[in-house]
Every structure is written in structure tokens, then in C-alpha cells.
Design goal:
Number of helices: 3
Oligomer: single chain
Strand order of the largest sheet: 7-8-9-10-11-14-15-1-2-3-4-5-6-16
Distance between the termini: 14 Å
Length: 279
């Protein structure tokens, strides 16, 4: 497997690995992100007690600004690091909302391409002529957590992973609102900027084990469709194993909403060998 395809595979599989053993910790702010947005709000919180069942009251619904579009093109730079590898590479995304995500990695020549549909992921390694095929149902069964196309799309676009429900706990603090949710084996804490009505931070904690996942959206740009995150930082680490940390930093360098029907060219050459992906 070439290192660029490995990086993309890591990006696609990161949430899966995080859902197996996540645990939360406070945000330290030690990241490669340089804040160019003077209105950036970073909330430093430690995990509170597990959500209790408050007295029945009117639901405090959080207002968010979803991105309404049909098709989208994004040119990005991805920095990927794990205990075994570290590299950065350009990535082009094409998204047909709620339907397809097309990914291409090129370093001079294209070295990898992927297609993510509502039920599966297929990635081709053009340097080694390998193909990797995954389906969300198998991944969900493997990790005991409902992995989905929506989860990956939400991470790229900076949108809520799980919709708010009546039983979720909401705490408002000035221009920030915190949403606490329980989803399968995870506690999910999300923070929203009430000025932009956008998600800025997510932390996940497993109920029994020790790994953490953190997703941050520190900067945004205003587009014709609303605010769009220009940077995404994803971090997974096991506090008991300080060297076992995976980071992905995505910088969206160009975002283009497309009204015309986009092409998503993808095929697997007959001489490519299918390989299993060991997560």
C-alpha cells in the first residue's frame, strides 16, 4: 500500500477505530492549527458526570445552519500522522450531498482514488495496483457502532454527527451551547457557536474503555451557502498509551458549490488485486 493511499484509508477509517475505544479528555489547544479567525471560540471543558435525567421540561432546541447544496468540489491539503507513519498530501473531494463522496489523491500523477456511497467504500492504490473494499454494515458489526456515509460527510462539512433529540442535555453559556448525547457505546459532547450557528467542536468518550476522539472546526469562511469550515482537526488517542495517537489535519483551500451535474469517474482495472484492509 502506498503511503498516500494509507493516509486516505486512515482518514476514512479513523472514526471506526475511534468508536472501538474512545475516552474524552480536556482540550489542550496543542494543535498545528494557527488561528487566523479573531472570533474563534475554543471551549476548554473536562468531562462532567454522565448525563442524568432532568425533570421534564420544554426541549431547548439548538438552531444550526445546515449547508444546503446539491454538489460540491473541495481542494484540500491533508496532514496525517500515526504511530507508524506521517505524511501530507493534496486531496480533491467531490460530494453529491447525501449520496456520493469522490476522493482523489495526486502528487504529480494520481496515486489513489476512492468512492464512498451510502453503503460502501472502495479505494484504489494506483502505485501498487491494489483495491480495498469495505461496507458500512460490516464495519458497524465489527466495531459495535453505527458507522455510516452520513458520519463521514458530516465530518468533512462540519455538521452535527447525530441529530438532537428530546432526551439530550443542553447547556447554554453566553454565545456557546453544549449538547450532551448518548449514542450506542459513546457519550458525545458537541459545542456550537451561536453567532454563526455552526458546530465548532465534538468529543467522544467510550463508556467502558480509555480512548478519546476529538474533532475541531476552528476557522470558517462565509460562502453563498453559509459558513463553511476551512480547517478540520481530528485527533484520536489512548491516554494510557501516550504514543498511540492518530491526527488528521485538513485544510480546505478551495470550496466550490456546483449547480451542474458533477461527474464521479471511478472504475477498478481488471489487473488490480483486491486486498483486505486490516483496521
Amino acid at each position: 500500500m502506498n503511503k498516500y493511499t494509507l493516509g486516505v484509508l486512515g482518514f476514512m477509517a479513523l472514526l471506526a477505530s475511534a468508536c472501538q475505544k474512545p475516552k474524552s479528555k480536556s482540550i489542550t489547544g496543542n494543535s498545528p492549527i494557527s488561528s487566523q479567525d479573531s472570533t474563534l471560540m475554543v471551549v476548554e471543558e473536562k468531562w462532567t458526570a454522565e448525563p442524568t435525567n432532568p425533570k421534564k421540561q420544554e426541549v431547548d432546541w439548538i438552531k444550526v445552519q445546515p449547508l444546503e447544496f446539491e454538489s460540491l468540489k473541495i481542494r484540500s491539503k491533508v496532514e496525517f500522522s500515526s504511530p507508524t507513519t506521517s505524511q501530507d498530501f493534496p486531496v480533491n473531494f467531490q460530494i453529491r450531498k447525501d449520496s456520493l463522496i469522490w476522493v482523489s489523491v495526486s502528487v504529480g500523477l494520481e496515486v489513489g482514488r476512492g468512492i464512498i456511497s451510502r453503503d460502501s467504500i472502495i479505494l484504489v492504490d494506483r502505485l501498487n495496483k491494489h483495491v480495498y473494499q469495505l461496507d458500512f454494515q460490516t464495519l458497524s458489526n465489527q466495531f459495535g457502532f453505527p458507522l455510516s456515509f452520513h458520519l463521514i460527510q458530516s465530518m468533512i462539512l462540519g455538521e452535527s454527527v447525530f441529530p438532537q433529540r428530546e432526551q439530550d442535555l443542553v447547556v447554554r453559556q453566553a454565545d456557546v451551547v453544549q449538547l450532551s448525547q448518548e449514542e450506542g457505546p459513546l457519550w458525545i459532547e458537541s459545542w456550537f457557536d451561536l453567532i454563526r450557528n455552526k458546530l465548532t467542536q465534538v468529543q467522544g468518550k467510550h463508556k467502558e474503555t480509555s480512548q478519546t476522539i476529538e474533532i475541531r472546526y476552528p476557522t470558517f469562511q462565509e460562502t453563498i451557502k453559509g459558513f463553511f469550515p476551512t480547517q478540520v482537526l481530528v485527533k484520536v488517542e489512548d491516554p494510557e498509551k501516550k504514543t498511540n495517537q492518530t491526527r488528521i489535519f485538513i485544510e480546505h483551500q478551495k470550496v466550490e458549490f456546483v449547480s451542474r451535474d458533477l461527474r464521479f469517474p471511478f472504475n477498478v482495472p481488471k489487473n488490480y488485486t483486491e486486498k483486505p484492509l486490516k483496521l
